[in-house]
Amino acid sequence: MVHILPGCQGTAFRFRDTKSPSYHVPHGVPQGSVLGPLLFILYVADAAETEIPERHGLGSHFYADDAQLYLTCRRDDSATCASRVSTCIEEIDQWMAANRLAMNPTKTDVVWCSTSHQPSD
Fold first, then answer.
1. For residues 77 and 62, what is the distance between their CA atoms, to the nearest angstrom?
2. pLDDT tens, 74-86?
3. What pTM was estimated for this model as a whole?
4. Separation of alpha carbons 76 and 80, rounded Å
């Protein structure tokens, strides 16, 4: 196991009995840091607090560096719902860019679920 040894003067790695030279980390959290997930959650918690999904009528779940947006809609409102999801994703992308984060389009998916059952009104 590789251990990250943060310190005021710099960061070093230790693997068994071997320790790397210390180097300066001006910002961010080294990959694999125990504090990494917690610090990331604290950093992006502002996205949930800004209520971006709620402004667009979407529900959301955030877990570590993943987010899920969801909503239900009637079949005749599908174009409006798709537009709301798209607009929400664009706004989240803008928020991320303003906060020095980047959305990964190759890891962004849309899942559309429907039923042939016609709900009764």
1. 26
2. 888 989 999 999 9
3. 0.64
4. 9
